[in-house]
Amino acid sequence: xxxxxxxxxxxxxxxxxxxxxxxxxxxxxxxxxxxxxxxxxxxxxxxxxxxxxxxxxxxxxxxxxxxxxxxxxxxxxxxxxxxxxxxxxxxxxxxxxxxxxxxxxxxxxxxxxxxxxxxxxxxxxxxxxxxxxxxxxxxxxxxxxxxxxxxxxxxxxxxxxxxxxxxxxxxxxxxxxxxxxxxxxxxxxxxxxxxxxxxxxxxxxxxxxxxxxxxxxxxxxxxxxxxxxxxxxxxxxxxxxxxxxxxxxxxxxxxxxxxxxxxxxxxxxxxxxxxxxxxxxxxxxxxxxxxxxxxxxxxxxxx
Length: 303
Known about the structure:
Elements: E1 2-4, H1 11-17, H2 20-29, E2 34-35, H3 36-43, H4 47-59, E3 63-70, E4 73-80, E5 85-87, E6 99-106, E7 113-117, E8 121-123, E9 128-129, E10 148-151, E11 153-161, E12 172-180, E13 192-198, E14 201-208, E15 233-240, E16 243-246, E17 249-252, E18 265-272, E19 282-285, E20 296-302
Parallel strand pairs: 1-5
Antiparallel strand pairs: 2-4, 3-4, 6-20, 7-11, 8-9, 8-10, 10-19, 11-18, 12-15, 12-19, 12-20, 13-14, 13-18, 15-16, 16-17
């Protein structure tokens, strides 16, 4: 899912959607992967015209292309790069009076506590860290460079400095992360109940639908194998005065007043416990993997 807004950088995406032909191409690619010639024939257009439309869709991040050798020739194969586009409009003026008083981007390898069970592993942007399915490598010093990590059940916990000063009271806390399930290979139908905690308080659950499986992650390095975790979903967790929300949907009645404040730090935990209804593991994607060029982003707002 592409999460966009009114920033000008998203204009190529909106331009790519502003065409009956390009919408038709997206419908065709939802059925199966096709090359440019097949798309041109299906849409009754010339190959050069279809190539122009394909370029627009690719620039908008809606499709991906790759050159494939088959049937004695080279074909430009096209496939969907996302399952949708969500456009978030600017918040109303009254709500916009809040301001960010702290923003921290935390690499996925900078966890401070963990307990994980196979299948599990970590990787930097350059290589696998240690070996597959060996939790001991979660203590490897090089794990600080991890850009992706995954485990079948368990948790990882992060400590973030609290930079609020005397007199500042948080009005909202926001956590943004690309996350998904962890299947033994990949499986887009592999639900997992991912639990979120802040300062030891259980905030709520988001059920990941699966472990990607439709094409490669846009940011994955070339050495990353196709049968490994590819991309997740960008989730926005907000803890407010009236409850906790995931992507705008209320998941619990836990409010900011229920979360004890520490003078020095914030503690975030992502967990798939053994007793969950769906124990489908967890994958965290950093800025060099998946579909979103970001690490774990933590923000504190005040009015």
